[in-house]
């Protein structure tokens, strides 16, 4: 997991991002403007910055150079979704550019991609005797290899990346099968049952009544 600086002047959005980062295992620090952001950058090491473009005082585009000098990758968060703005942000060297409003799952997925790309993501996940090695796409139960189908592994990866978050069947279909997948949501139920059986995770993959599923990471 990563240590992330969230630079966002809108309190509601900032608090929501911080809450979701915490739920999936990231640690984070908040800043409401450029001055606070620079102070935080100088006082701690970060794996990633979520940087709002439209900030009071110095804007995010101007602040970007400070993060580049500190070797901290940046994902821009902004309501400015025009093509020229997106191109400008990427050309300046940002890793990604996310337009508000955004879905939490999309934000977490893009964070994961950037952390992995920059070698700042944890590549192994442990839970109740199960070890998931993301780089090798291997899964072990009590050090014994577990054979998963490609679709079972894709579903497992989405659950792990969004652990402790309740996900609807539709969200799981979109993330693990792809938005172009056409099928009934009971397909998710079938694959969840297979994962539970293969991994011994009946008490880890929880059913959220009339909603979907949640991978609940036990507190060690």
Outline the secondary-structure elements.
Blueprint: E1 3-7, H1 11-23, E2 27-31, H2 34-43, E3 48-52, H3 60-69, E4 74-78, H4 83-91, E5 96-99, H5 104-117, E6 124-127, E7 130-133, E8 138-141, E9 144-145, H6 150-161, E10 167-168, H7 169-177, H8 186-199, E11 205-208, E12 212-215
Parallel strand pairs: 1-2, 1-3, 3-4, 4-5
Antiparallel strand pairs: 6-7, 7-8, 8-9, 10-12, 11-12
Helix pairs in contact: 6-7, 6-8
Q: Name the CATH homologous superfamily of the largest domain.
A: Response regulator
User: Radius of gyration, rounded?
Assistant: 19 Å
Helix content: 40-55%
Low-pLDDT sequence parts: none
- What is the third-level CATH name, the topology of the largest domain? Rossmann fold
| CATH class placement of the largest domain | Alpha Beta
| Rounded mean pLDDT score | 90
Number of strands: 12
The structural class is alpha/beta
Q: What gap, in angstroms, lies between the N and C termini?
A: 16 Å
> What is the strand content?
15-25%
Tell me the CATH architecture of the largest domain.
3-Layer(aba) Sandwich
Number of domains: 2
Q: Major sheet: size, sense and barrel closure?
A: 5 strands, parallel
Number of helices, counting only DSSP H or I runs of 4 residues or more: 8
Q: Report strand order across the widest sheet.
A: 2-1-3-4-5
Shape estimate = elongated
Topology order in helix (H) and strand (E) letters: EHEHEHEHEHEEEEHEHHEE
């Amino acid at each position: 997991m990563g240590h992330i600086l969230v630079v966002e002047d809108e309190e509601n959005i900032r608090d929501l991002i911080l809450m979701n980062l915490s739920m999936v295992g990231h640690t984070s620090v908040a800043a409401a403007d450029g001055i606070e952001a620079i102070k935080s950058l100088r006082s701690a090491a970060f794996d990633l910055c979520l940087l709002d473009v439209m900030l009071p005082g110095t804007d995010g585009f101007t602040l970007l150079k400070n993060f580049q000098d500190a070797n901290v990758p940046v994902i821009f968060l902004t309501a400015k979704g025009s093509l020229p703005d997106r191109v400008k942000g990427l050309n300046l060297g940002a890793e990604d550019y996310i337009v508000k409003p955004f879905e939490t799952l999309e934000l977490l997925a893009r964070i994961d991609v950037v952390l992995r790309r920059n070698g700042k993501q944890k590549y192994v996940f442990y839970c109740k005797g199960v070890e998931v090695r993301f780089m090798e796409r291997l899964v072990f139960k009590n050090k014994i290899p577990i054979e998963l189908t490609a679709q079972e592994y894709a579903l497992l990866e989405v659950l792990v990346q969004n652990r402790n978050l309740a996900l609807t069947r539709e969200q799981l279909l979109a993330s693990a099968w792809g938005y172009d997948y056409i099928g009934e949501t009971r397909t998710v139920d079938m694959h969840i049952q297979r994962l539970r059986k293969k991994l011994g995770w009946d008490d880890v993959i929880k059913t959220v009544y009339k909603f979907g599923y949640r991978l609940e990471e036990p507190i060690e």
